[in-house]
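Dear support,

Our group has been running a series of protein-ligand predictions, and this particular one with 6-O-phosphono-alpha-D-glucopyranose is the one our PI (initials K.S.) wants archived with full inputs and outputs. We had some confusion internally about which version of the output was final, so please treat the block below as the authoritative record. The input we submitted was:
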Amino acid sequence: MSDKAADIYHAAGTEKTNAAQDTQDTQDTRGTQDIRDASNTEASSEETATPVKNSAKVIDLSALHFEPGFLAGLERLYFIACGSAYHVGMAAKYSIEKMTRVPVEVDLASEFRYRDPILVPNSMVIIISQSGETADSLAAMRLAKEMGVPTLAVVNVIGSSIAREADHVMYTYAGPEIAVATTKAYSAQLICTYILGIALGIAKGRIDQEKETAYINALEKLPDQISKILEDKERIQWFASKYANAHDVFFIGRGLDYAICLEGSLKMKEISYIHSEAYAAGELKHGTISLIEDGTLVIGVMTQNDLYEKTRSNLVEVKARGAYLMGLTNYGNYSTEDTVNFAVYVPKTEAPFTASLAVIPLQLMGYYLSVAKGLDVDKPRNLAKSVTVE
Ligand code: G6P
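Confirmed final output from the archive:
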């Protein structure tokens, strides 16, 4: 995680004054959010924060230029995006609702713009976009603005249309992303949503300083934890090579794990051209289970401890119908191996942040399937990096 890729807001009331905001150049400084050591607040000339007496790290969202009290007054968030960015919104729904108890809705931009949406007062629309130029996302944002709802853009390309037109911008600072199928922008977008969730929880008095510190410490560990997952990549490569000829793959999970499944499935489709579907595990019985045949690969994602047994029992059901099972869960959940044929473990983190870790083995699966089939991983057929027309 880049040191700019996090955004911080202090529990002890460090919202900027209007006067301080007026002194900022909104063109140049928007979105330069940061995690910083609260004992070092004098380092920023923009700070108008109450001095902090300990060395706890804090979230500082001052560069987003929210009005004082704005976050505390929010009663609903709407995430709107396309493709993988939409899946970030889906993950954010689960993680932000868990952290803050503020309701979160998620829309595909192409649906939002044509469904005559209803946006409640005291809400904010958040557009997530790597390119900042996706036609549907831009149109959805313009519609939200017309409806008088404040907009925040979570964008990677600096100065892009969505970044320029949004009321507030939070840059992901993932660097240029070349390959068509997004990976690093997805990861950076997730971090932005966590930071926003933490800031919102603090503003609403639902996250205390101790929890804020725990969350920030967990965020700071993510890069090393991802490196650890990558050390296991040969196992995933070996497994992927066995399934290079698969026709259908199903991903199942509940809650945040379902959101992770959506992205794992999309990655597989995009770059390996294997048909795959992500299902909320509880929906299996409502139709999908009829597609399970001998040898069908089903990937169960089980990072949420409270849902672990539920999803595991769904895996048992499909196994009884001949499915071959891959299980993805946290280190320590070794009973997974009683059920699945191939287990992959990710390090533990705070529950709302597990998408950042669990997505990596799934991205590797898509990647190695593509390599095993001799495909061009970076330039999949029929896809564009940026979809600037409807
Ligand atoms: C295309 C890309 C995806 C991306 C989606 C949204 O389909 O191939 O990787 O998630 O557009 O793009 P955006 O730039 O708005 O994030």
